[in-house]
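Agenda item 2: 5-O-phosphono-beta-D-ribofuranosylamine complex prediction
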Amino acid sequence: MLKLAVLVSGGGTNLQAIMDSIADGRIKGAQITAVISNNHHAYALKRAEKAGLFARCISPKDYKDREAFHEALLAALLESQADLIVLAGCLVVIPKAIVKVYENRIINIHPSLIPAFCGKDYYGLKVHEGVLARGVKVTGATVHFVDSGTDTGPILLQKAVEVRADDTPKSLQQRVMEEAEWLLLPKAIDLIASGAVTVTDGKVVITQPACVG
Ligand code: GRF
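Presented output:
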């Protein structure tokens, strides 16, 4: 059974998609052992508690400095005995020390088709604002392994979403979540849990059909 630690910062819709997919069998062979947020007010924590999951907040505000926060986060991850860490709407930059301990065992959902509209200044609505400002006709979402960079790790799954002429950043964000994120992240977890995913020379190899939605 693949143990998951899910890191969240906001509304938790991606967490909800994972929980629902475990419940209905779209994800087989995985269980959530911890939900951890950096934000005391994250609705994602309420979703976890409502589902009876172990949920806790580890906020940088509660530690004397960034290093102490990182140490507490690593301790919580080790305590969860997670095999895979899932960044689900997580806005924390994972420190190199944690990436090293969990090499190729941290995945992230990013709301664009990497390498487009990603990196340090692209998160949340900013991604979709950039997409609309550039006038691209197709966007989407990406699940990738986390390395020491920002949105630079090996790509696992992607799904395209049409950009509509009347889109606003909010309407586009919602459609990317509905049509891509909430399908890709559960599928990625199910593939990893089934042993169908390896990373070789910085590229992801999937040995099972990976079609989504
Ligand atoms: C979503 O746009 C997701 O792509 C990004 O954070 C936003 C909120 O995600 N990573 P969630 O509802 O907290 O899962």
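Discussion summary: The helical segments are 13-24, 43-50, 66-80, 96-101, 125-134, 169-193.
Owner for follow-up: CH.
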